[in-house]
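The instructor's notes for this session suggest beginning with a concrete chain rather than abstract definitions. Hand out the sequence below and ask the class to guess, before any prediction is shown, which regions might be ordered.
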Amino acid sequence: MIAIDTTVLIDEFRAKGSPLAPVNRVLLQFANEPLVVPSVVAGEFLDGAWMVSKERAEQAMRLLRTRRICGIDLETAAIYARLVARLRKQGKLGGRSQNDLWVAATAISEGAVLLTRNPADFSGIEGLEVRGYGATD
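After discussion, reveal the predicted structure:
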């Protein structure tokens, strides 16, 4: 299973289906894997779309409706709490995005590999497998 980060949705939206786009080439590598979108990712993606226009938000909703959105349940909340506490005790929490930590917890809870253009945002998170790609891969 592959959980996709907000960067993937943004790149996919911008690529407009081009098979040459790095994001689409990477997604093709996972064609046989189920894709999930953490609800936090869906929220971030829609927030950015609404900042542009109502029309962009409607386009973003159409894209999201083609994906399975996974929410935050008690297991995910417990994973989030453990990883935040661990990072805080290690002195590695500062500067991290709370949303990224929820995305990581959701991927772990789903048993999914996290696909992102920004793997450094998820470094040092125990139990999280991250697959990165570059904008020019």
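Then share the key points. The beta strands are 2-4, 35-38, 68-70, 113-116, 130-132. Residues 74-89 form the longest helix (16 residues).
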